[in-house]
Amino acid sequence: MNREAEIIQALRAAASLTPTLTVKQYQLWSRDRDVPTFLDVLNFYGSWTGALKAAGLLEARKHYTQQELVAALRLALEQEGKLTSTYYQQWVKDHPGPSLGDIISHFGSWSLAVKTVERLEELHFTVQPEREKAEIVQSLLEASRVVVPFNAITYQKWAKQHKRPSVAKVSRRYGSWKRALAELELRESCEGKK
Fold first, then answer.
1. Single pTM value for the model
2. Is the pLDDT of residue 194 over 50?
3. CA 156 to chain centre
């Protein structure tokens, strides 16, 4: 029997015991059997979803993109404050979106789905703001040297011309325009350079 046939046979055998075959279920099922491991499956097909499709184990239903799946999970997380599979099953009954099975089929397990969302949230709330802050600092320092007089109005015009962060963005990041200048030890000028 070739490798692909072995994997498909193993997936189908494991799936016969459960309505939605997850990575964890497959790992538990395959532990004491002479069958391909989860890593063998992943290496052969590249993804858990791809393996399930090849074995004919995915129902014909709406195919959700990863962005759609993550968006649904984020919305559920936002409304609940935490994300458990039990809560999500209740939440999706009242909201349009992917089923728990869709999510598990795509990510391989509930915990991998949650980890993906947490990692994306972390990137969104830590890396992006740091890049944004660096861009604001650089823009304010540069503008304070070249914009005469340097104030919120003249900076806004300069920022628009040079596609830099607006006064509103600076204010949101620092709490106010004046606070941003104070933190960077910059001063507005009425005329001429500082």
1. 0.36
2. no
3. 32
